[in-house]
Specification:
By secondary structure, the chain is of the alpha+beta class. It contains 11 helices and 13 strands.
Amino acid sequence: MSISLNPSQMNVALLAGGTSGERDISIESGKGALQALQEAGFNVTVFDPAKKDDLKALIDGNFDVAFLCTHGRFGEDGTLQGFLELIGLPYTGPGVWSSATSINKTISKVVYKHANIPTPSSISLTSRHQYSNEHIIAAVGEHCVVKPDTEGSTLGITIITKASELDAALDEAFKHDRTVIAESFVSGTELTVAVIGNDDPIALPVIEIVPSHSFYDFESKYAPGGSKHICPAPLSEEQTKLVQDLALQSHKALQCSGMSRTDIIIDGMTAWVLETNTVPGMTATSLLPDAGAAAGISFPELCTKLIGYALEK
């Protein structure tokens, strides 16, 4: 990092909460980041972007940088990033376009394919009956994943194994979003790879996710003991390089800066990119801090790096 920071002289606005379906998780991320930032020596004030008074305080306040722990819509989709751009406050993580593109599973797949990044076949629906069930199954197969287009934390997601389950899966996904994606199911080991940096980003050690349920659902992500993280993942050197390269390619293709975390499935030497997160979680069970620790970067050091990247931009 080229910027030298003096944390005790810096005022950080930590943003957590918001109005998305991930509000509670965002608040927990904020608590984790707050402790790490204070341990690093920063002066931190916590704001909730769901409150207009807090947004006004950001405009009127004297802050050096915003540290984002806002997940989902209006926090991770470029909306909040655009607000911060308008008021001239640097912020952690990717910019407006990258955030808006990455959270949209349909559009991010277009970017992946343009960059020759392997991703499962999919079909998007903007209304419940845009396509017949037969058309959807023909496109992605009976064993598929149905999920909201712009939600995170596996909200509204269903894995089906036969066509008769499709109606219920679509109904559930449309409860959470106006656009829904059906994606071919790919089997293999679930991995995630965090990337940090701006012009010369680096991939952190690969994490294997071993959920307690049949897949990495909401409870597996956030409940204590809901999943086991193995880091570094028990992969061959060739497999490790493959998935780290895919994460870096995804980070660059989506024009991310500061940080990202890409979810990947691998089977032998075949790997598929599922999605890229631009504001990874910062809770006690979150993956980015785990990857940092495996690379010898403490949580306070990681937060300091993210602030440095924000100011570098």
